[in-house]
Amino acid sequence: MTPSPYRERILDHYQRPRHRGSLEAPLAVGEIDNPVCGDQVRIAVRLDADERVTAAFDGEGCILSMAAASMLAEHVQGRPLSDVRALTDQDILDLMEVELGPVRVKCALLPLRALQAALEELEDR
């Protein structure tokens, strides 16, 4: 059986995460966890003078939640804040490039929920 390049991409992001760690001088941080499975994701964001996003994540969890966090952090780097605010669940599922069942979808969307929490914090400032 030939390995799927999509699964390989998920494993690559899990094993070699992009933008994982702390972010110097974040403007906002969103943290969320899934008490059912124990996954936890923290996303920190800051903006440059042109309101372009820089993000970093940290956390613990399954392959899907951590790979999704890496893919999301990579995806939002340098994007306008308005574009990042407009991200949908389907955008994240499209980044994953695999079909996921209802339980696994929650894992993949956890990083987006953390990012949305950070963006809400930005709005409250």
Structure, explained:
The chain is of the alpha+beta class and 125 residues long. The chain has helices spanning 5-15, 63-76, 81-85, 89-96, 102-124; strands spanning 28-33, 40-47, 53-60. It starts with a helix and ends with a helix. The protein has one domain (5-124): Sufe protein. Chain: A, CATH 3.90.1010.10. It has 5 helices and 3 strands; from the N terminus they run αβββαααα. Helix 1 (5-15) packs across helix 2 (63-76), helix 2 (63-76) crosses helix 5 and helix 4 crosses helix 5. Strands 1-2-3 form a 3-stranded antiparallel sheet.
Tally of separate helices: 5
Reading off the top of the CATH hierarchy, the class is best stated as Alpha Beta
What name is given to the CATH topology? Sufe protein. Chain: A
How much strand content do the residues show? 15-25%
Number of self-contained structural domains: 1
Low-confidence stretches: none
Q: Largest sheet, described in full?
A: 3 strands, antiparallel
Name the average pLDDT: 93
Q: Write out the strand line-up for the largest beta sheet, numbering strands in chain order.
A: 1-2-3
Relative helix content: 40-55%
The count of β-strands is: 3
